[in-house]
Specification:
The chain has 309 residues and is α/β, with parallel strands linked by helices. The protein is built from 11 helices and 9 strands. Strands 1, 2, 3, 4, 5, 6, 7, 8 and 9 form a 9-stranded mixed β-sheet that branches. The longest helix is centred in the C-terminal third of the chain and has 19 residues. It starts with a helix and ends in a 5-residue tail after the last helix. Bound molecules: D-malate. D-malate (MLT) binds next to helix 2, helix 6 and helix 7. It comes from Paracoccus laeviglucosivorans. Pfam families: TctC (PF03401). InterPro entries: BUG, Bug_dom1. Belongs to the UPF0065 (bug) family.
Length: 309
């Protein structure tokens, strides 16, 4: 693309539909958040954001797809903590996580929930944790691939409980949730966004939240800390990304559309109902989210070690 053509593109952007890559299977939290925010952004931008599911390898296949796409604003990524953690867990990534993306902005942050199949015999969180400790490898835990939030939560739980479970990898927590509902796996740690509807529907049981504070939308559930897992505190986030090199006019146009979505009371109410929230406006700029991503890459490197898989 010549400089002149690039400028013209930025001025008339967007002229055609935009691909929004969701790096996990349909039916999971990334898909749900992506569709909700994407629908609002489509209205603001006057072009459809079309969700493309590219699951696998803990979100890194979808991230690679966007890292190598043309930086023209027509291929975007919704990603979360796994984008940062993947830098330490996958030795053969085809992109450098710290430099391959132009962050558009942070979308939301929220806790995860420890869930069990509905016929698991545990009367409360303390009882479940005791049974998980005692059961060890007899306990099957579903997750969305190495480095996904649900996997990182499992790693933190194993460490905090001093136990090792039998981990089952899926392409997203959508399909893992289906197996939890069917009772073919015992437990899972999933984001509140998809956990709360299932807990309320009685298809799975919720036991404890991963954040340091209780969650307004599930007030009855204790925190992990309350149940004796000292210091346990895991809050996840989602952000929106374009490939590095995307003109700043385009990144800013996308950020402006994202802000409209995040300030929409209907979306804020939907977020609140499923236990997640937007951030203050000053933390949602492209610059602020880039700083957050860089910090998270370092944090997970310290926690996991380089190529700790
Ligand atoms: C999903 O959409 O399946 C989740 O975000 C995966 C995860 O990180 O646990």
């Amino acid at each position: 693309v010549s400089f002149a053509a690039g400028m013209a593109g930025a001025q008339t952007y967007p002229e055609r539909p935009i691909n929004l890559v969701v790096p996990f299977a349909a039916g999971g939290p990334s898909d749900a958040i992506g569709r909700l925010v994407g629908q609002s952004m489509s209205g603001t931008l006057g072009q459809q954001l079309i969700v493309e599911s590219v699951g696998g390898a803990g979100g890194t296949l979808g991230a690679a797809r966007v890292a190598h796409a043309d930086p023209d604003g027509y291929t975007l990524l919704i990603a979360h903590v796994s984008l940062a953690a993947g830098a330490s867990l996958y030795p053969n990534l085809t992109y450098d996580t710290a430099t391959a993306f132009a962050p558009v902005g942070m979308i939301n942050q929220g806790p995860m929930v420890l869930l069990a199949r509905k016929d698991f015999d545990a009367k409360d969180a303390g009882d479940l944790i005791q049974k998980m400790r005692d059961g060890g490898e007899d306990i099957s835990l579903g997750h969305a691939g190495v480095g996904s939030n649900s996997h990182l939560c499992a790693v933190l739980l194993q460490e905090a409980m001093g136990a090792k479970f039998t981990l089952a990898a899926y392409q997203g927590t959508g399909p893992a949730m289906n197996d939890l509902m069917a009772g073919t796996i015992d437990v899972m740690c999933d984001q509140s966004t998809t956990s709360i509807p299932q807990i309320q529907g009685g298809t799975v049981k919720g036991y404890a939240v991963t954040s340091a504070e209780r969650m307004e939308a599930l007030k009855d559930l204790p925190t992990m800390q309350e149940t004796g897992l000292d210091g346990f505190d895991f809050t996840i986030w989602h952000g929106l990304y374009a490939p590095a090199g995307t003109p700043s006019e385009i990144v800013n146009a996308l950020n402006a559309a994202l802000q409209v979505a995040l300030d929409d009371q209907k979306i804020r109410d939907r977020f609140a109902a499923v236990g997640t929230s937007t951030l203050p406006a000053d933390q949602r700029s492209p610059e602020a989210h880039d700083a957050k991503l860089q910090l998270e890459i370092k944090t997970w490197q310290q926690l996991l070690g380089t190529n700790a898989q």
